[in-house]
Design brief:
This protein is mainly alpha-helical and 107 residues long. The protein has 7 helices and no strands. α2 runs antiparallel to α3 and α5 packs antiparallel against α6. 14% of the residues are buried.
Length: 107
Protein backbone atom coordinates (compact mmCIF):
# COMPACT_ATOMS: atom_id res chain seq x y z
CA UNK A 1 0.00 0.00 0.00
CA UNK A 2 2.88 2.36 0.65
CA UNK A 3 3.94 2.27 -3.02
CA UNK A 4 0.44 3.08 -4.20
CA UNK A 5 0.07 6.10 -1.93
CA UNK A 6 3.50 7.44 -2.77
CA UNK A 7 2.39 8.46 -6.29
CA UNK A 8 0.47 11.53 -5.21
CA UNK A 9 -2.98 10.52 -4.10
CA UNK A 10 -5.33 13.32 -3.18
CA UNK A 11 -7.69 13.55 -0.22
CA UNK A 12 -10.52 12.43 -2.49
CA UNK A 13 -8.55 9.30 -3.36
CA UNK A 14 -8.11 8.42 0.33
CA UNK A 15 -11.78 9.07 0.89
CA UNK A 16 -12.74 6.86 -2.03
CA UNK A 17 -10.52 4.10 -0.69
CA UNK A 18 -12.13 4.32 2.74
CA UNK A 19 -15.65 4.20 1.29
CA UNK A 20 -14.84 1.20 -0.90
CA UNK A 21 -13.20 -0.54 2.06
CA UNK A 22 -16.28 0.09 4.21
CA UNK A 23 -18.48 -1.30 1.45
CA UNK A 24 -16.53 -4.53 1.66
CA UNK A 25 -14.17 -4.33 -1.31
CA UNK A 26 -10.93 -6.07 -0.41
CA UNK A 27 -9.06 -4.44 -3.29
CA UNK A 28 -10.14 -0.86 -2.53
CA UNK A 29 -6.68 0.64 -3.01
CA UNK A 30 -6.20 -1.18 -6.31
CA UNK A 31 -9.60 0.02 -7.55
CA UNK A 32 -8.80 3.64 -6.69
CA UNK A 33 -5.40 3.31 -8.32
CA UNK A 34 -6.98 1.80 -11.44
CA UNK A 35 -9.47 4.69 -11.59
CA UNK A 36 -6.58 7.18 -11.46
CA UNK A 37 -4.74 5.52 -14.33
CA UNK A 38 -4.47 7.49 -17.54
CA UNK A 39 -6.49 6.29 -20.49
CA UNK A 40 -4.83 7.51 -23.70
CA UNK A 41 -7.44 5.97 -26.00
CA UNK A 42 -10.31 7.59 -24.12
CA UNK A 43 -8.47 10.93 -24.10
CA UNK A 44 -7.79 10.69 -27.83
CA UNK A 45 -11.43 9.81 -28.51
CA UNK A 46 -12.70 12.75 -26.44
CA UNK A 47 -10.31 15.09 -28.20
CA UNK A 48 -11.40 13.81 -31.60
CA UNK A 49 -15.07 14.05 -30.67
CA UNK A 50 -14.74 17.66 -29.54
CA UNK A 51 -12.87 18.55 -32.71
CA UNK A 52 -15.53 16.92 -34.87
CA UNK A 53 -18.40 18.68 -33.11
CA UNK A 54 -16.75 22.07 -32.87
CA UNK A 55 -18.70 24.78 -34.63
CA UNK A 56 -17.10 25.74 -37.88
CA UNK A 57 -16.23 29.40 -38.23
CA UNK A 58 -19.01 31.20 -39.98
CA UNK A 59 -18.09 32.16 -43.48
CA UNK A 60 -19.36 35.46 -44.68
CA UNK A 61 -20.39 35.14 -48.27
CA UNK A 62 -20.61 38.13 -50.49
CA UNK A 63 -23.36 37.36 -52.97
CA UNK A 64 -23.61 39.73 -55.87
CA UNK A 65 -27.38 39.87 -56.29
CA UNK A 66 -27.20 41.89 -59.49
CA UNK A 67 -24.93 39.24 -61.03
CA UNK A 68 -27.28 36.52 -59.78
CA UNK A 69 -30.22 38.26 -61.44
CA UNK A 70 -28.21 38.69 -64.69
CA UNK A 71 -27.15 35.03 -64.64
CA UNK A 72 -30.73 33.91 -64.08
CA UNK A 73 -31.88 36.10 -66.97
CA UNK A 74 -29.20 34.49 -69.17
CA UNK A 75 -30.39 31.01 -68.15
CA UNK A 76 -34.00 32.01 -68.85
CA UNK A 77 -32.90 33.10 -72.34
CA UNK A 78 -31.09 29.79 -72.83
CA UNK A 79 -27.58 31.24 -72.78
CA UNK A 80 -25.95 29.01 -70.14
CA UNK A 81 -22.39 29.95 -71.16
CA UNK A 82 -23.10 33.65 -70.53
CA UNK A 83 -24.61 32.77 -67.15
CA UNK A 84 -21.50 30.80 -66.21
CA UNK A 85 -19.23 33.68 -67.23
CA UNK A 86 -21.28 36.12 -65.15
CA UNK A 87 -21.21 33.88 -62.08
CA UNK A 88 -17.49 33.03 -62.37
CA UNK A 89 -16.61 36.74 -62.49
CA UNK A 90 -17.95 37.31 -58.94
CA UNK A 91 -16.05 36.95 -55.66
CA UNK A 92 -18.25 34.03 -54.56
CA UNK A 93 -19.23 32.06 -57.67
CA UNK A 94 -20.89 29.22 -55.78
CA UNK A 95 -23.03 31.47 -53.59
CA UNK A 96 -24.00 33.63 -56.54
CA UNK A 97 -24.95 30.57 -58.60
CA UNK A 98 -27.18 29.31 -55.80
CA UNK A 99 -28.70 32.76 -55.44
CA UNK A 100 -29.44 32.76 -59.18
CA UNK A 101 -31.76 29.79 -58.67
CA UNK A 102 -34.19 32.15 -56.92
CA UNK A 103 -34.61 34.10 -60.13
CA UNK A 104 -34.66 31.28 -62.70
CA UNK A 105 -38.07 30.99 -64.25
CA UNK A 106 -39.20 34.33 -62.80
CA UNK A 107 -40.07 36.85 -65.47
Amino acid sequence: MRTIRRDGWTAADYESEQILHELGYRDAAARVNRARRRRPVRRAWCTLRTRLHRRAPEMTTCIDWDAARAAADAVNRGDVDAAERIVQATTDPRGTAFAAFRFIGVE
